[in-house]
Amino acid sequence: MIKSAVHPLLASLLPPTYYSIPLKSPPSRSFNRFYCQSSSKNNNVKNSVQQPYFPPLFSVAPMMDWTDNHYRTLARLISKHAWLYTEMVVAETIVHQQDNLDRFLSFPREQHPIVLQIGGSNLNNLSKAAALANSYNYDAINLNCGCPSGKVAGHGCFGVRLMLNPTFVAEAMSAIAESCDAPVSVKCRIGVDDHDSYSELCDFVYKVASGSPTRHFIVHARKALLNGISPAANRKVPPLKYEYFFGLLRDFPSLQFTMNGGVTCINEVNAARRHGAHGVMVGRAAYNNPWRTLAFVDSSIYGASSINVSRRQVLEQFQLYGDSVLGMYGSNKPNIRQLIKPLLKIFHSEPNNGLWKRKAVTTLRHCKTVKAFLDETLDVIPDFVLDSIPEEMPSCCEHAFADLDSLLPSPYNIEKMSYYLCSTGGNGEGLTGAGY
């Protein structure tokens, strides 16, 4: 396991309780105690329950056009304890759709624990968006500082481009936290273009944490390339550098870090946890193979009871949800294709999966309800596939990350950053290091 060490200079600057970041204000929310409860700022709370949740040891990544309400409903039917993230919602969308907020922010209460991810680069709109989302009672709010899409990081000037301005990110996180009751977090990459050294990554984390209440970072262990490469290629071309992630664990022991990028199975999640990761976020594996990925989260990661249900039972429950929301926001909003989309992955690698998908394409041309779709297509899936429950976790690399200790970058030069922060009153203004 990666060991953490408190830098003596930092320890001398801080109260005994907080060890590695000169805090703007003491952290008021613990990573290990997340609650979904009524807002003290708005009595008109939707989806309100009083219930503690397990910490986010495992979470499903926010993915545009994928992690919508329909996928999250399916995911929650398979795992009761995985933390679910929304698609990124742009702050301006929330602000300008105040008469139609349910379409963008509402979710079934069964989806808790759930995190809203927002994007944007306007402080006023980020603050307003967080305030408007507050009444929906999300369990946390996350700022997107990792999306490399040209529409987001290019024309939009947010997403991963925000990593080049950590002072602004700290201000944004403070504004978001001030406007809502939920814990806040940042999702980022390990670097951007040529700003990809470990020291620059640490500078970003240090400045954001020292200038805001942010204590949780979800780190995609690849850098982003903003010129001449697609978002899909940005998930594959830049190499994974898990040693940067584990370096952060060592150098910032009072912060919480969730690892993201390249993890494809539960054994790898557990391996990362054994080596010190506070949590692991899984993206495409949880979407492209939801049954084999999510069905083992509760038992293997949380030590809780497994779902003990079959795919047939999950589909029956999803059908009740799907047909109840068809056209809820007007004609074809949502439509049958949107509702069926996440189901198309549930028989991944099973017998007749290809045949079922081909029949699904034909059936979607004329069916009007989820029930009709399932009635017409499931006959091609063998009963043993439909009725079996998860019993044996798929095998994959159980020894991932075992050799990373020798690859860890040199410890962060915290003296320089501490000097700058102290000389600027701790707000990061005037910082000139690391190319920012």
UniProtKB/TrEMBL annotation:
Residue ranges of every copy of the DUS-like FMN-binding domain listed in the record: 60-366
Any matching Pfam family: Dus
Alphabetical keyword list: NADP, RNA-binding, tRNA-binding
GO molecular function: tRNA binding; tRNA dihydrouridine synthase activity
Protein's UniProt keywords contain tRNA-binding: yes
Record Gene3D superfamilies: Aldolase class I (3.20.20.70)
Protein's UniProt name: DUS-like FMN-binding domain-containing protein
Organism listed in the record: Stephania japonica
Taxonomic placement: Eukaryota, Viridiplantae, Streptophyta, Embryophyta, Tracheophyta
